């Protein structure tokens, strides 16, 4: 039976690139296979977590029978509505920022920058389509996986039903991901709004845009659309943006957004939205004082909700709440035969976190029954990046985390205005901050604020994973000049703290008489 009805396609403008995308990730003429008598693994959801679990299990060379079910678009949020399209647009927007800074580098550019927004969006669609074959239904079919397109729900006695077919399993994995939260604001449904699942269907630039939510998604897209030419107002209910991030890091980004002309509406509660002939009017309270603003479009960039609806989880004893499916440290649900991975169950809602969780699930579903040990979610060292300009990259603990656990910490911090390559690049705004256990070189966490902080954080992550402390990092030779030299400078700064007053005096004497 073919499965041609899937809701997410309706948000895609059907040009040649989206037709190519859909032909890979939800082929209109796809025919679901006849189910095997019994599957070793049935995976529901073909986003990052589901794809990695299915491909990993099928690729072991053990002859395992694996089924993969997807009701919308294979590749999930990352390919279709998340990382891939957003970073394509952010790259185009970054060019605008570079042009703004060109005069400081001795390059004179025209006063008026012409942004071809339709071309920006077309480039995004082309690049997304070009890489979509990696997540295609046919590719996973060729890996020996039975790919089913349609809605799935659990049945009793270790079975899943999809497209009227029953798939029996030894183990199952829920990897259905999460979606943007629909805000409970009076009138907003009638006025209309975008989320990350619909904003990338735009072909014309909104002249004015209200972004609701000052977390990573909201800040990234607010800056991108502002640079591409929209007049942006960014709403946030807290007193400063990125309130879950390092406060010093968040302040740098916040100041940069304001410098670029983004209007910040902090400490606000939106009360109502009304659609008028002039546009969409947002009525809100700022510090208890009523205000309003009229914009062309609204983007919701706050909050994610787990995709648990329709799975019939209660029937099979899988507990869940508003945060998602409940799992233990082995990613096992309250039904011992069913596991979960990705946004459906993790606080870390990142593609790389879904990938890491999927690898844990492969080991714990297929290998641990043979006594080969289990992998734990708590063993992961998880970095993440907010892709503003400058970027914020973080791994491990924040200062508040350590103090709340009663851990005494030391902090080494290097400003990029003391790093030669950052000075040459004109990118001196930012820092490397490394937290270590007091009296030890053990790294507990780190935050980097830099133009390409995301390209630098993995060095510290690798050090933490392999238990290399600041002494070890200090011994790593970094090519000169690079901005990553800020990491070595931070490690060197720690080593200097080890010098006692006596040793400093002795070194001074040795230097004097050498």
Explain this structure.
With 514 residues, this protein is of the alpha/beta class. It has 16 helices and 23 strands. The chain has helices spanning 16-25, 48-58, 76-80, 83-100, 117-131, 137-142, 188-191, 216-228, 247-259, 351-367, 399-404, 420-425, 457-465, 470-474, 485-497, 501-513, and strands at 39-44, 66-70, 146-149, 152-155, 159-162, 165-174, 178-180, 208-212, 231-235, 263-265, 268-276, 279-286, 289-295, 297-300, 304-306, 320-321, 324-325, 338-340, 383-386, 391-396, 409-415, 431-437, 443-450. The longest helix is centred in the N-terminal third of the chain and has 18 residues, at 83-100. The chain is globular and about 80 Å long.
Radius of gyration: 25 Å
In the predicted model, the low-confidence regions spanning at least 5 consecutive residues are 1-7
Biggest β-sheet description? 7 strands, mixed
The rough form would be described as: globular
Q: Count every beta strand, where a strand is a DSSP E run of 2 or more residues.
A: 23
């Amino acid at each position: 039976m073919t499965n041609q009805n899937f809701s997410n396609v309706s948000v895609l403008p059907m040009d040649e690139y989206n037709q190519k995308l859909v032909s890979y990730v939800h082929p209109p003429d796809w025919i679901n296979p006849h189910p095997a008598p019994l599957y070793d693994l049935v995976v529901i959801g073909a986003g990052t977590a589901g794809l990695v679990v299915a491909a990993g299990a099928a690729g072991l060379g053990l002859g395992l029978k694996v089924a993969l079910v997807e009701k919308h678009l294979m590749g999930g949020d990352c390919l279709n509505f998340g990382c891939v399209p957003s970073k394509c647009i952010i790259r185009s927007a970054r060019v605008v920022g570079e042009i703004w800074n060109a005069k400081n580098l001795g390059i004179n550019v025209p006063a008026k920058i012409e942004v071809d927004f339709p071309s920006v969006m077309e480039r995004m669609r082309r690049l997304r389509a070009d890489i979509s074959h990696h997540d295609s239904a046919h590719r996973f079919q060729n890996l020996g996986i039975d790919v089913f397109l349609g809605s799935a729900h659990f049945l009793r006695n270790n079975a899943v039903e999809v497209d009227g077919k029953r798939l029996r399993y030894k183990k199952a994995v829920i990897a259905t991901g999460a979606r943007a939260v629909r805000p409970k604001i009076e009138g907003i449904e009638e006025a209309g709004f975008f989320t990350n699942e619909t904003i990338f269907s735009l072909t014309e630039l909104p002249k004015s845009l209200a972004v609701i939510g000052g977390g990573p998604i909201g800040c990234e897209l607010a800056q991108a659309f502002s640079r591409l030419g929209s007049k942006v107002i960014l709403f946030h209910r807290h007193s400063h943006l990125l309130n879950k991030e390092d406060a010093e890091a968040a302040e740098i980004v916040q100041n940069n957004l304001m410098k670029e002309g983004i209007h910040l509406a902090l400490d606000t509660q939106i009360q109502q939205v009304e659609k008028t002939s002039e546009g969409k009017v947002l009525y809100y309270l700022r510090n208890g004082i009523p205000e309003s603003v009229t914009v062309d479009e609204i983007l919701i960039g706050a909050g994610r909700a787990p995709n648990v609806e329709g799975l019939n989880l209660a029937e099979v004893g899988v507990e869940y709440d508003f945060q998602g499916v409940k799992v233990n440290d082995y990613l096992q649900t309250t039904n011992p035969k069913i596991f979960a991975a990705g946004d459906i169950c993790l606080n870390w809602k990142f593609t790389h976190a879904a990938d890491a969780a999927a690898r844990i699930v492969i080991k714990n579903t297929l290998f641990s029954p043979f006594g080969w040990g289990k992998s734990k979610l708590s063993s992961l060292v998880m970095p993440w990046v907010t892709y503003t300009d400058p970027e914020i990259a973080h791994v491990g603990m924040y200062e508040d985390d350590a103090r709340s656990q009663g851990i005494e910490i030391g902090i080494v911090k290097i400003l990029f205005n003391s790093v030669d390559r950052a000075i040459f690049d004109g990118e001196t705004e930012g820092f490397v901050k490394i937290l270590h256990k007091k009296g030890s070189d053990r790294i507990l966490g780190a935050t980097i604020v830099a133009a390409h902080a995301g390209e630098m954080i993995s060095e510290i992550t690798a050090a933490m994973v392999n238990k290399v402390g600041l002494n070890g990092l200090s011994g790593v030779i970094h090519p000169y000049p690079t901005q990553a030299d800020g990491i070595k400078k931070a490690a060197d700064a720690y080593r200097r703290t080890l010098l006692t007053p006596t040793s400093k005096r002795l070194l001074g004497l040795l230097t004097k008489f050498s």
